[in-house]
Protein backbone atom coordinates (compact mmCIF):
# COMPACT_ATOMS: atom_id res chain seq x y z
CA UNK A 1 0.00 0.00 0.00
CA UNK A 2 3.06 2.22 -0.11
CA UNK A 3 1.88 4.17 -3.16
CA UNK A 4 -1.92 3.94 -2.72
CA UNK A 5 -3.35 7.43 -2.23
CA UNK A 6 -7.06 6.69 -1.80
CA UNK A 7 -10.12 4.80 -3.05
CA UNK A 8 -12.58 6.61 -5.32
CA UNK A 9 -16.19 5.74 -6.10
CA UNK A 10 -16.79 5.38 -9.84
CA UNK A 11 -20.40 6.54 -9.39
CA UNK A 12 -20.36 9.62 -7.13
CA UNK A 13 -16.64 10.40 -7.09
CA UNK A 14 -16.44 10.08 -3.31
CA UNK A 15 -12.92 9.62 -1.92
CA UNK A 16 -12.04 7.31 0.97
CA UNK A 17 -8.87 6.32 2.73
CA UNK A 18 -8.20 2.56 2.58
CA UNK A 19 -8.63 2.10 6.33
CA UNK A 20 -12.08 3.74 6.27
CA UNK A 21 -13.92 1.37 3.91
CA UNK A 22 -13.27 -2.26 2.99
CA UNK A 23 -15.41 -2.83 -0.08
CA UNK A 24 -17.70 -0.25 -1.69
CA UNK A 25 -18.87 3.34 -1.39
CA UNK A 26 -21.18 3.53 1.64
CA UNK A 27 -23.23 6.27 -0.04
CA UNK A 28 -23.91 4.40 -3.29
CA UNK A 29 -24.07 0.81 -2.00
CA UNK A 30 -22.66 -2.28 -3.66
CA UNK A 31 -24.90 -2.06 -6.73
CA UNK A 32 -23.31 1.20 -7.91
CA UNK A 33 -20.55 2.21 -5.52
CA UNK A 34 -17.60 0.31 -7.01
CA UNK A 35 -14.32 1.77 -5.79
CA UNK A 36 -11.14 2.34 -7.78
CA UNK A 37 -7.68 2.23 -6.21
CA UNK A 38 -5.77 5.43 -6.99
CA UNK A 39 -1.96 5.50 -6.82
CA UNK A 40 0.71 8.18 -6.66
CA UNK A 41 1.98 7.45 -10.16
CA UNK A 42 4.84 9.92 -10.00
CA UNK A 43 6.21 8.04 -6.99
CA UNK A 44 5.52 4.66 -8.61
CA UNK A 45 7.54 5.61 -11.69
CA UNK A 46 10.71 5.96 -9.62
CA UNK A 47 10.34 2.33 -8.51
CA UNK A 48 8.70 0.72 -11.55
CA UNK A 49 10.35 1.45 -14.90
CA UNK A 50 12.11 -0.47 -17.68
CA UNK A 51 15.43 -0.30 -15.85
CA UNK A 52 14.11 -1.53 -12.50
CA UNK A 53 12.16 -4.39 -14.10
CA UNK A 54 15.14 -5.47 -16.21
CA UNK A 55 17.13 -5.86 -13.00
CA UNK A 56 14.36 -7.71 -11.12
CA UNK A 57 14.82 -11.52 -11.07
CA UNK A 58 11.27 -12.14 -9.79
CA UNK A 59 9.21 -13.42 -12.72
CA UNK A 60 5.74 -13.36 -11.15
CA UNK A 61 2.99 -10.78 -10.83
CA UNK A 62 4.68 -9.56 -7.65
CA UNK A 63 7.39 -7.83 -9.68
CA UNK A 64 4.78 -5.08 -10.02
CA UNK A 65 4.42 -4.62 -6.26
CA UNK A 66 4.59 -0.79 -6.44
CA UNK A 67 1.31 -0.93 -8.40
CA UNK A 68 -0.38 -3.40 -6.06
CA UNK A 69 -2.33 -2.65 -2.84
CA UNK A 70 -0.26 -4.88 -0.56
CA UNK A 71 0.91 -3.57 2.82
CA UNK A 72 2.73 -6.68 4.03
CA UNK A 73 4.61 -8.62 1.30
CA UNK A 74 5.55 -11.28 3.85
CA UNK A 75 1.95 -12.54 3.66
CA UNK A 76 2.15 -13.32 -0.07
CA UNK A 77 1.43 -17.06 -0.67
CA UNK A 78 4.22 -19.19 -2.11
CA UNK A 79 2.34 -20.09 -5.31
CA UNK A 80 3.88 -18.69 -8.48
CA UNK A 81 1.32 -16.47 -10.17
CA UNK A 82 1.70 -14.69 -13.46
CA UNK A 83 4.43 -14.22 -16.01
CA UNK A 84 2.46 -16.57 -18.23
CA UNK A 85 3.72 -17.26 -21.76
CA UNK A 86 2.98 -15.02 -24.71
CA UNK A 87 2.96 -16.78 -28.08
CA UNK A 88 3.20 -15.42 -31.61
CA UNK A 89 0.69 -17.56 -33.54
CA UNK A 90 0.88 -17.01 -37.35
CA UNK A 91 -1.37 -19.99 -38.19
CA UNK A 92 -4.07 -18.71 -35.87
CA UNK A 93 -3.66 -15.20 -37.31
CA UNK A 94 -4.30 -16.59 -40.80
CA UNK A 95 -7.46 -18.37 -39.63
CA UNK A 96 -8.72 -15.27 -37.85
CA UNK A 97 -7.95 -13.04 -40.82
CA UNK A 98 -5.58 -10.59 -39.10
CA UNK A 99 -2.02 -9.49 -39.78
CA UNK A 100 -0.61 -10.84 -36.52
CA UNK A 101 -2.00 -12.66 -33.50
CA UNK A 102 -0.46 -13.15 -30.08
CA UNK A 103 -1.93 -15.45 -27.41
CA UNK A 104 -1.33 -15.07 -23.69
CA UNK A 105 -2.01 -18.40 -22.00
CA UNK A 106 -3.45 -17.72 -18.54
CA UNK A 107 -4.22 -21.41 -18.10
CA UNK A 108 -0.61 -21.76 -16.97
CA UNK A 109 -1.36 -20.19 -13.57
CA UNK A 110 -1.40 -22.39 -10.41
CA UNK A 111 -5.10 -23.35 -10.53
CA UNK A 112 -5.21 -23.06 -14.34
CA UNK A 113 -6.98 -19.74 -14.73
CA UNK A 114 -6.57 -15.99 -14.90
CA UNK A 115 -8.51 -15.66 -11.62
CA UNK A 116 -5.38 -16.63 -9.67
CA UNK A 117 -4.14 -13.07 -10.07
CA UNK A 118 -7.15 -11.73 -8.18
CA UNK A 119 -7.20 -14.45 -5.53
CA UNK A 120 -3.54 -13.92 -4.74
CA UNK A 121 -4.28 -10.31 -3.83
CA UNK A 122 -7.56 -11.17 -2.11
CA UNK A 123 -5.97 -13.68 0.24
CA UNK A 124 -3.20 -11.24 1.18
CA UNK A 125 -5.78 -8.53 1.95
CA UNK A 126 -7.79 -10.99 4.06
CA UNK A 127 -4.70 -11.88 6.07
CA UNK A 128 -3.81 -8.21 6.50
CA UNK A 129 -7.31 -7.63 7.89
CA UNK A 130 -6.92 -10.53 10.32
CA UNK A 131 -9.81 -12.44 8.72
CA UNK A 132 -10.56 -15.93 9.99
CA UNK A 133 -12.46 -17.02 6.84
CA UNK A 134 -12.77 -15.85 3.24
CA UNK A 135 -15.69 -16.29 0.85
CA UNK A 136 -16.77 -15.75 -2.75
CA UNK A 137 -19.42 -16.71 -5.27
CA UNK A 138 -18.28 -18.00 -8.62
CA UNK A 139 -19.26 -19.85 -11.76
CA UNK A 140 -16.14 -21.93 -11.17
CA UNK A 141 -12.73 -20.39 -11.82
CA UNK A 142 -12.71 -17.74 -9.09
CA UNK A 143 -13.87 -20.43 -6.70
CA UNK A 144 -11.13 -22.87 -7.74
CA UNK A 145 -8.59 -20.11 -7.47
CA UNK A 146 -9.70 -18.96 -4.04
CA UNK A 147 -9.73 -22.54 -2.76
CA UNK A 148 -6.13 -23.02 -3.87
CA UNK A 149 -4.79 -19.76 -2.53
CA UNK A 150 -6.66 -19.93 0.76
CA UNK A 151 -5.23 -23.42 1.20
CA UNK A 152 -1.72 -22.09 0.58
CA UNK A 153 -2.32 -19.37 3.18
CA UNK A 154 -3.95 -21.65 5.75
CA UNK A 155 -7.13 -19.56 5.60
CA UNK A 156 -10.51 -21.39 5.64
CA UNK A 157 -12.75 -20.67 2.64
CA UNK A 158 -16.50 -20.93 2.11
CA UNK A 159 -17.50 -20.84 -1.54
CA UNK A 160 -20.88 -20.52 -3.26
CA UNK A 161 -21.29 -21.99 -6.76
CA UNK A 162 -24.38 -22.42 -8.95
CA UNK A 163 -25.52 -26.01 -9.33
CA UNK A 164 -24.50 -25.96 -13.01
CA UNK A 165 -20.80 -25.33 -12.27
CA UNK A 166 -18.62 -27.87 -14.15
CA UNK A 167 -17.70 -30.96 -12.16
CA UNK A 168 -13.97 -30.48 -12.70
CA UNK A 169 -14.07 -27.04 -11.13
CA UNK A 170 -16.09 -28.19 -8.14
CA UNK A 171 -13.65 -31.07 -7.68
CA UNK A 172 -10.80 -28.56 -7.40
CA UNK A 173 -12.60 -26.78 -4.58
CA UNK A 174 -13.14 -29.93 -2.61
CA UNK A 175 -9.60 -31.21 -3.11
CA UNK A 176 -8.19 -27.94 -1.78
CA UNK A 177 -10.37 -28.32 1.32
CA UNK A 178 -12.84 -25.48 0.79
CA UNK A 179 -16.36 -25.56 2.21
CA UNK A 180 -18.53 -25.67 -0.92
CA UNK A 181 -22.16 -24.60 -1.11
CA UNK A 182 -23.77 -25.78 -4.36
CA UNK A 183 -26.66 -23.35 -4.77
CA UNK A 184 -29.84 -24.48 -6.48
CA UNK A 185 -30.07 -21.38 -8.64
CA UNK A 186 -28.16 -19.06 -10.94
CA UNK A 187 -24.75 -17.48 -10.42
CA UNK A 188 -26.48 -14.21 -9.59
CA UNK A 189 -28.46 -15.91 -6.82
CA UNK A 190 -25.30 -17.54 -5.48
CA UNK A 191 -23.61 -14.11 -5.50
CA UNK A 192 -26.40 -12.48 -3.51
CA UNK A 193 -26.39 -15.34 -0.99
CA UNK A 194 -22.63 -15.00 -0.60
CA UNK A 195 -23.06 -11.28 0.10
CA UNK A 196 -25.59 -12.02 2.83
CA UNK A 197 -23.41 -14.72 4.41
CA UNK A 198 -20.33 -12.50 4.34
CA UNK A 199 -22.18 -9.73 6.18
CA UNK A 200 -23.88 -12.10 8.62
CA UNK A 201 -20.82 -14.11 9.64
CA UNK A 202 -18.07 -11.52 9.18
CA UNK A 203 -16.22 -13.43 6.45
CA UNK A 204 -13.78 -11.52 4.23
CA UNK A 205 -15.44 -11.05 0.83
CA UNK A 206 -13.41 -11.94 -2.26
CA UNK A 207 -16.19 -11.10 -4.73
CA UNK A 208 -14.30 -9.15 -7.34
CA UNK A 209 -16.76 -6.42 -8.22
CA UNK A 210 -17.39 -5.19 -4.68
CA UNK A 211 -13.85 -5.76 -3.43
CA UNK A 212 -11.73 -2.96 -4.98
CA UNK A 213 -8.45 -4.80 -4.54
CA UNK A 214 -9.21 -7.86 -6.66
CA UNK A 215 -9.20 -5.99 -9.96
CA UNK A 216 -5.71 -4.76 -9.05
CA UNK A 217 -4.52 -8.35 -9.27
CA UNK A 218 -6.31 -8.84 -12.57
CA UNK A 219 -4.68 -5.80 -14.13
CA UNK A 220 -1.27 -7.47 -13.79
CA UNK A 221 -1.98 -9.44 -16.97
CA UNK A 222 -1.73 -6.13 -18.85
CA UNK A 223 1.35 -5.06 -16.93
CA UNK A 224 2.96 -8.28 -18.13
CA UNK A 225 1.72 -7.88 -21.69
CA UNK A 226 3.19 -4.41 -21.84
CA UNK A 227 6.53 -5.55 -20.46
CA UNK A 228 6.68 -8.65 -22.67
CA UNK A 229 6.03 -6.62 -25.82
CA UNK A 230 8.50 -3.98 -24.63
CA UNK A 231 11.14 -6.70 -24.52
CA UNK A 232 10.11 -8.42 -27.78
CA UNK A 233 9.17 -5.49 -30.00
CA UNK A 234 10.22 -2.19 -28.39
CA UNK A 235 8.06 0.70 -29.50
CA UNK A 236 5.31 -1.57 -30.85
CA UNK A 237 2.13 -2.97 -29.31
CA UNK A 238 -0.88 -4.78 -30.81
CA UNK A 239 -3.77 -2.74 -32.16
CA UNK A 240 -6.30 -4.72 -30.12
CA UNK A 241 -6.31 -6.55 -26.79
CA UNK A 242 -9.09 -9.14 -26.67
CA UNK A 243 -10.76 -10.82 -23.70
CA UNK A 244 -14.01 -12.58 -22.89
CA UNK A 245 -16.47 -10.72 -20.62
CA UNK A 246 -18.63 -11.88 -17.72
CA UNK A 247 -18.91 -9.66 -14.64
CA UNK A 248 -16.80 -6.89 -16.20
CA UNK A 249 -13.97 -7.20 -13.68
CA UNK A 250 -11.49 -8.85 -16.02
CA UNK A 251 -11.88 -6.42 -18.93
CA UNK A 252 -11.89 -3.55 -16.43
CA UNK A 253 -8.60 -4.77 -14.96
CA UNK A 254 -7.10 -5.29 -18.40
CA UNK A 255 -7.86 -1.68 -19.35
CA UNK A 256 -6.58 -0.22 -16.10
CA UNK A 257 -3.29 -2.09 -16.46
CA UNK A 258 -2.87 -0.90 -20.04
CA UNK A 259 -3.45 2.71 -19.04
CA UNK A 260 -0.94 2.45 -16.21
CA UNK A 261 1.77 0.98 -18.42
CA UNK A 262 1.13 3.65 -21.05
CA UNK A 263 1.56 6.28 -18.37
CA UNK A 264 4.81 4.64 -17.25
CA UNK A 265 6.18 4.63 -20.81
CA UNK A 266 6.01 0.93 -21.69
CA UNK A 267 3.32 1.29 -24.36
CA UNK A 268 3.72 3.90 -27.14
CA UNK A 269 -0.04 4.18 -27.69
CA UNK A 270 -3.06 2.61 -26.07
CA UNK A 271 -4.74 -0.26 -27.95
CA UNK A 272 -8.43 -0.75 -28.49
CA UNK A 273 -10.15 -3.33 -26.31
CA UNK A 274 -12.49 -5.98 -27.72
CA UNK A 275 -14.87 -7.48 -25.17
CA UNK A 276 -16.43 -10.76 -26.27
CA UNK A 277 -19.61 -12.26 -24.85
CA UNK A 278 -21.63 -15.36 -25.61
CA UNK A 279 -24.79 -14.76 -27.63
CA UNK A 280 -26.76 -16.47 -24.88
CA UNK A 281 -25.59 -13.89 -22.33
CA UNK A 282 -24.71 -10.48 -23.76
CA UNK A 283 -25.81 -7.67 -21.40
CA UNK A 284 -22.70 -5.57 -22.14
CA UNK A 285 -23.17 -5.77 -25.90
CA UNK A 286 -26.87 -4.92 -25.62
CA UNK A 287 -26.21 -1.86 -23.46
CA UNK A 288 -23.32 -0.70 -25.67
CA UNK A 289 -25.26 -1.02 -28.93
CA UNK A 290 -28.35 0.71 -27.56
CA UNK A 291 -26.53 3.34 -25.49
CA UNK A 292 -28.60 2.34 -22.48
CA UNK A 293 -28.03 1.32 -18.85
CA UNK A 294 -27.51 -2.28 -17.86
CA UNK A 295 -30.49 -4.58 -18.39
CA UNK A 296 -29.87 -7.90 -16.60
CA UNK A 297 -30.72 -11.01 -18.60
CA UNK A 298 -30.94 -14.77 -18.23
CA UNK A 299 -27.71 -16.62 -19.02
CA UNK A 300 -27.82 -19.46 -21.55
CA UNK A 301 -24.36 -20.53 -22.72
CA UNK A 302 -21.95 -23.42 -22.26
CA UNK A 303 -19.21 -20.87 -21.47
CA UNK A 304 -19.96 -21.03 -17.75
CA UNK A 305 -17.21 -18.63 -16.69
CA UNK A 306 -18.92 -15.76 -18.54
CA UNK A 307 -22.52 -16.86 -17.93
CA UNK A 308 -23.28 -13.71 -15.94
CA UNK A 309 -26.65 -12.14 -16.64
CA UNK A 310 -26.22 -9.35 -14.06
CA UNK A 311 -22.66 -8.03 -14.32
CA UNK A 312 -21.53 -6.54 -11.00
CA UNK A 313 -18.76 -4.39 -12.47
CA UNK A 314 -20.70 -2.91 -15.35
CA UNK A 315 -19.16 0.55 -15.08
CA UNK A 316 -15.53 -0.54 -15.39
CA UNK A 317 -16.34 -3.12 -18.05
CA UNK A 318 -18.13 -0.57 -20.22
CA UNK A 319 -15.46 2.04 -19.53
CA UNK A 320 -12.77 -0.23 -21.00
CA UNK A 321 -14.45 -0.39 -24.40
CA UNK A 322 -15.72 3.19 -24.54
CA UNK A 323 -12.47 4.84 -23.44
CA UNK A 324 -10.32 2.69 -25.72
CA UNK A 325 -12.52 3.19 -28.77
CA UNK A 326 -13.02 -0.57 -28.88
CA UNK A 327 -16.09 -2.74 -29.25
CA UNK A 328 -18.22 -5.52 -27.84
CA UNK A 329 -19.24 -8.53 -29.91
CA UNK A 330 -21.11 -11.74 -29.12
CA UNK A 331 -20.60 -15.22 -30.56
CA UNK A 332 -22.75 -18.37 -30.53
CA UNK A 333 -21.75 -21.45 -28.56
CA UNK A 334 -20.99 -23.24 -31.84
CA UNK A 335 -18.31 -20.65 -32.63
CA UNK A 336 -16.87 -21.03 -29.13
CA UNK A 337 -16.57 -24.80 -29.57
CA UNK A 338 -14.91 -24.29 -32.95
CA UNK A 339 -12.45 -21.88 -31.34
CA UNK A 340 -11.54 -24.53 -28.73
CA UNK A 341 -10.25 -26.94 -31.34
CA UNK A 342 -8.83 -24.27 -33.64
CA UNK A 343 -6.81 -22.61 -30.89
CA UNK A 344 -5.44 -26.00 -29.86
CA UNK A 345 -4.56 -27.07 -33.40
CA UNK A 346 -3.17 -23.78 -34.70
CA UNK A 347 -1.58 -22.37 -31.52
CA UNK A 348 -1.24 -25.47 -29.28
CA UNK A 349 -3.15 -23.71 -26.50
CA UNK A 350 -5.95 -25.70 -24.85
CA UNK A 351 -8.53 -23.29 -23.47
CA UNK A 352 -11.90 -23.76 -21.81
CA UNK A 353 -14.99 -22.30 -23.54
CA UNK A 354 -14.86 -18.88 -21.87
CA UNK A 355 -11.10 -18.86 -22.30
CA UNK A 356 -11.30 -19.15 -26.09
CA UNK A 357 -14.34 -16.94 -26.56
CA UNK A 358 -11.98 -14.06 -27.30
CA UNK A 359 -10.58 -15.90 -30.33
CA UNK A 360 -14.09 -16.57 -31.65
CA UNK A 361 -14.81 -12.88 -31.13
CA UNK A 362 -11.84 -11.77 -33.20
CA UNK A 363 -13.06 -13.80 -36.15
CA UNK A 364 -16.53 -12.30 -35.81
CA UNK A 365 -15.10 -8.79 -35.47
CA UNK A 366 -13.01 -9.19 -38.63
CA UNK A 367 -15.99 -10.49 -40.57
CA UNK A 368 -18.15 -7.56 -39.42
CA UNK A 369 -15.50 -4.95 -40.21
CA UNK A 370 -14.75 -3.95 -36.61
CA UNK A 371 -11.17 -5.22 -36.85
CA UNK A 372 -9.24 -4.47 -40.03
CA UNK A 373 -7.34 -7.43 -41.55
CA UNK A 374 -4.17 -5.30 -41.46
CA UNK A 375 -4.39 -4.96 -37.67
CA UNK A 376 -2.77 -7.08 -34.96
CA UNK A 377 -4.40 -8.63 -31.88
CA UNK A 378 -3.38 -10.00 -28.50
CA UNK A 379 -5.86 -12.54 -27.14
CA UNK A 380 -5.97 -13.38 -23.43
CA UNK A 381 -6.99 -17.03 -22.97
CA UNK A 382 -8.36 -16.95 -19.44
CA UNK A 383 -8.60 -20.64 -18.48
CA UNK A 384 -7.34 -24.11 -19.29
CA UNK A 385 -9.42 -26.57 -21.27
CA UNK A 386 -9.17 -29.24 -18.58
CA UNK A 387 -11.57 -27.08 -16.59
CA UNK A 388 -14.44 -28.29 -18.79
CA UNK A 389 -13.79 -31.69 -20.31
CA UNK A 390 -17.41 -32.18 -21.37
CA UNK A 391 -17.22 -29.16 -23.67
CA UNK A 392 -13.83 -30.24 -24.96
CA UNK A 393 -15.22 -33.63 -25.96
CA UNK A 394 -18.24 -31.95 -27.53
CA UNK A 395 -15.91 -29.78 -29.57
CA UNK A 396 -13.39 -32.41 -30.60
CA UNK A 397 -15.52 -35.53 -30.91
CA UNK A 398 -14.89 -39.08 -29.75
CA UNK A 399 -11.88 -41.34 -30.43
CA UNK A 400 -11.98 -44.07 -33.07
CA UNK A 401 -12.80 -47.44 -31.53
CA UNK A 402 -10.78 -50.41 -32.87
CA UNK A 403 -9.85 -53.96 -31.95
CA UNK A 404 -6.28 -54.67 -30.76
CA UNK A 405 -4.76 -55.65 -34.15
CA UNK A 406 -2.92 -53.89 -36.98
CA UNK A 407 -5.59 -54.63 -39.58
CA UNK A 408 -8.09 -52.65 -37.54
CA UNK A 409 -5.67 -49.71 -37.57
CA UNK A 410 -5.27 -50.07 -41.36
CA UNK A 411 -9.02 -50.01 -41.92
CA UNK A 412 -9.46 -46.98 -39.70
CA UNK A 413 -6.85 -44.89 -41.53
TrEMBL record:
Cofactor(s) annotated in UniProt: pyridoxal 5'-phosphate
Statement: the UniProt record of this protein carries the keyword Metal-binding: no
One GO MF term: threonine synthase activity
CDD domains: Thr-synth_1
EC number: 4.2.3.1
Positions of the Tryptophan synthase beta chain-like PALP domain: 80-383
Family matches, as Gene3D superfamilies: 3.40.50.1100
Broad enzyme group: lyase
Pfam family, one: PALP
Keyword entries, A-Z: Lyase, Pyridoxal phosphate
Post-translational modification N6-(pyridoxal phosphate)lysine, affected residues: 115
Entry's Gene Ontology BP terms: isoleucine biosynthetic process; L-serine catabolic process; L-threonine catabolic process; threonine biosynthetic process
InterPro entries linked to this entry: Ser/Thr_Dehydratase (IPR050147), Thr_synthase-like (IPR004450), TrpB-like_PALP (IPR001926), TrpB-like_PALP_sf (IPR036052)
NCBIfam families, per database record: thrC
Family note: Belongs to the threonine synthase family.
Name the UniProt record assigns to this protein: Threonine synthase
Species name: Heliobacterium mobile
Amino acid sequence: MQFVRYLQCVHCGGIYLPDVVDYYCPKCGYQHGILDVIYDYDAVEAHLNPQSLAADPVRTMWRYLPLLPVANPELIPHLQVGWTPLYNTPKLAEWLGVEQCWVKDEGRNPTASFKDRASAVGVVKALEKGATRITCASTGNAASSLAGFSSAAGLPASIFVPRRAPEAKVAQLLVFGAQVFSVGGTYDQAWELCMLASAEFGWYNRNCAINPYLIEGKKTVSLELAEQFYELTPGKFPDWVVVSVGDGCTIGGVWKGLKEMHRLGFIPRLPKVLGVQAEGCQPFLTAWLNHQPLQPCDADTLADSIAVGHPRNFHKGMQAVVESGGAFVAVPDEAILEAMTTLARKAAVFGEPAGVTGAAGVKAAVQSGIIDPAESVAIIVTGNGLKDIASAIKAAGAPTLIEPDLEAVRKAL
